[in-house]
Amino acid sequence: MKDKVVDINKDIKKLLVISIVITLLFVLGIPLLIYGATNSIWAILGIGIAFAVIGFYGTPMIWTAYANKKALKNVVDAVMEDHLTTVGEVASQLQIRERMARDLIITGIKKKYITGYIFNGSVLSPNQKEAPKKKVSSNKCPNCGGTLKSEENGYTCQYCGSHFDLK
To answer: Over the range 148-160, which residues count as b (16 or more CB within 10 Å of their CB) and which as e?
Structure first.
């Protein structure tokens, strides 16, 4: 049975929606709490307390989870889109520590966000049994450092438009 590649963007969108909802619970919980207490409406008071507690404790936790997922997405994009294949390259590109880059690469592989590679702890190599989603290339534009897109007769920089013939 072939594993389905998981889309990290869907997971990030879900976390964003949950983060906004929990933040709104906190904002809504305070007036409900006050209204329920001042008018002796115990059900509204209870709902207000529940919303305030969930929002107060949940908001920082869920936004932290969202930020961590965004960091993971940056690493996944560096590997799958920019074709960076060493921990040092990923860490340098994203301006993070190598230990964090290594951990995020491992997490990306475990969660099936990064596919088609074998990771030995410091270098990602193409897996001969499973092709990566995108063609592996380490070509960088000498003019601007952008990623070169492979074409029939050479390469074109996706950023500055420079063209380079096949050698």
So the answer is: beeeeeebbbeee
CA distances for 47 relative to 40, 52, 114, 133, angstroms? 13, 8, 42, 47
65-85 pLDDT, tens per residue?
Answer: 999 999 999 999 999 888 898
Question: Who's near 61: CB < 8 A, 6+ residues apart?
Answer: none
Q: What are the sequence ranges of the domains in the chain?
A: 8-136, 139-167
Give the Cα separation of 43 and 49 in Å (integer).
10
pTM of the model: 0.68
Of residues 120, 117, 87, the one with CA closest to residue 104: 87
